[in-house]
Each structure stands twice: as structure tokens, then as C-alpha cells.
Amino acid sequence: MADDIFREVDEEMRAERLRALARRYMILAGVIVAVICIGGGAWQYNAWRVQQADQASADAYFAALRNATASHAPDGQATPLNDQQKTALTQLAALEKTARPPLRALSRMERAALLANSGDTAQALALWAQVNEDRAADPTISSLAGLLWVQHQLDTADPAMLRSRLALLDGAQQPWHGLALECEALLDLRQGHEQDARGRLQRLSMDMNVSDGVRTRADGLLQALGNDNAGG
Q1: What is the CATH number of the domain that holds 53?
Q2: DSSP per residue, 189-200
């Protein structure tokens, strides 16, 4: 009898332990499911917030663009900023502080263009330098910023320094290869290296991978050089 009682108590204790263990695992499983659900919801909420922020940044960027392009300087002539363009500068500067890297770089590029067109080359150069050095920026935009930085100093800055920058941009696989080579030819002419300039311009005039505009300008410069020689 006693053995039966002990056995019954032992079985009851084991059953209770199993029930407690089952309850513990059920609670744990519930916690895990809750964490997964909360985590999934938090991820979705965060993704939604990022999407909303990106949309707001894009809307602000296009609003700034509308103000920036309200009027254009004739024939690339430097003209003072009008009120809408000044508003665009303020909008773009604010956007640079909140937008993610791709849009931040584009905002700086647009602001630099406005400043350069108004004659404020110094501030434009500073912005192009920032984009060029921004590792988070799209490489094509970063390279373009470097090219514009060089182009706006072709007649004034140290040729050796400019050539060192262009050497990073003139490779055949680089997106702005043709324009970089054109800048190098113009530097050759500035320094009196006419034969080097001719060689670069001839390469450009026959390169089907560069834009029509670059080839046309190269042909025009070659003809001018030929006419100059003929006249001399």
C-alpha cells in the first residue's frame, strides 16, 4: 500500500513537473512570438518612417528645383540671384542637413550651380569639393563634382594640381572621360603645349564613346589650330 502511495505521489510530482515545464515553455514561446511580432512591426514602422522621410526630402528637393530654375542667366552670364533662387539656396541648404547621402549630394550640386551662375565661384568650389570627397555620394556624381571643380579653375589654378585631379577622371572607363580629356587639352593650350593638345583633341574627335558636343568642340579647336598655323 505504502509503495503504491509513494508511486502515486512520485508520478503526481513528475506529472506536476511536466505541467510546470510545459507552462514554462508555453510562456517562453509566447514571449518569443511576441518579440517576433513586435520586432516585425517595429521594422515595418521604421521602414515606413524612412519611406516617408525620403518622400518628404524628394518633395523638398523638387520644390527647391522649381525655385532654382525660375530664371536662367543668358548665355552662361553671371547674374545676381533673384528672390526665388535665394529661396532655393535656403531650401537646399536645409535639405543637406536632413536628406540621405544621394539626395544630399544632389542638393549640394544644385546649390553650387546656383552660386557659380551668380558669380560666387569660391562657395561653389567649396561645395563641389565636399561632394567630391563624400564617400557616401554616388561615384558618378562625385566624379562630376571633381570635374566641375577643375573646369571652373582651368584659367587660374596651378596646372600641375589640376592635372593631378584630371588624372583620376580621364580613364577610358570613367563616366566623364571625354570632358576630362578636353580639360587636359585646354591646359595644354594654356601652357603652350600645342602638339599635346592636338593629340588629345584628335583622340576626342574620333572617340564614339564621348558625347557629340565634346567631339564637335574638339573638331572646332583642331580647325582653329590649323587655321592659326596656316595664318602663321
Answers
A1: 1.25.40
A2: HHTT-HHHHHHH
- What is the residue range of 197's domain? 1-229
Q: Helix (H, G, I), strand (E, B), or coil: what is residue 205?
A: helix
Cα 62 to Cα 88: distance, rounded to the nearest angstrom: 10
Q: Which residue has the cell 509503495?
A: 3
Q: Which long-range contacts (CB under 8 A, 24 or more apart) does 130-136 make?
A: 131/105, 134/101, 134/104, 134/105, 136/101, 136/104, 136/105
| C-alpha–C-alpha distance, residues 29 and 22, integer Å | 10
The pair phi, psi for residue 170, each rounded to 5°, is: -95, 5
The per-residue b/e assignment along 154-174, b for 16 or more CB within 10 angstroms, e otherwise, is: beeeeeeebbebbeebbeeeb
pLDDT for 201 beyond 50:
yes
**Is the pLDDT assigned to residue 39 strictly greater than 70?**
no
Dist. CA 149–CA 108, nearest whole Å? 13
CB 214 within 8 A of CB 204: yes
Those residues whose C-beta lies under 8 Å from the C-beta of residue 148, and which sit 6 or more positions away, are 112, 116, 124, 128
State which amino acid sits at residue 195: Q
CB 109 within 8 Å of CB 95: no
Question: What is the SS3 string spanning 216-230?
Answer: HHHHHHHHHHHHHHH
| Residue 116 neighbours by CB under 8 Å, 6+ apart | 124, 148, 152
pTM surpassing 0.70?
yes
